[in-house]
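## retry 2 of 3
previous attempt timed out at serialization; input unchanged, resubmitting
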Amino acid sequence: MKKRAIVQQTRPRLTLWSDANFSGNSLRFRGDLGVRNLITFGFNDVLSSLQLEGGPQNTLVLFEDVNYQGRRKVYRGPVNVSFLSDFNDVASSFIISRRRLSNDEIRRIQRRGRAPGNFAEILKRTKMKKMTKSFRPKKRK
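## retry succeeded, writing output
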């Protein structure tokens, strides 16, 4: 049975850009969320700038490899990073949280290779079904 999560949280909100200075292609995410693989969005190893909006307790963890593995970079609170100097074009997965994640919690995420149980998690992107017929109202006579 497939599980589906509906995320209604508005904070934190994370915007990722493929180029420095908040330019290029962008993606936006919100709420307590884990993305195991940025390949799904065509964003693997292309992240260059980011904006994390929300409260001072927010945490963003970028990981070098898919499934929250490899080197990591941690950001706390609202932050604007116009150029990810030492992590430019490196990130392959991430976790965002409304609360401050401790280093122990982050290590646990890496050991388990999955987001905490109360987080929404994007495993892979699903394609929208194409509509086979367009709806046109009937003309009145």
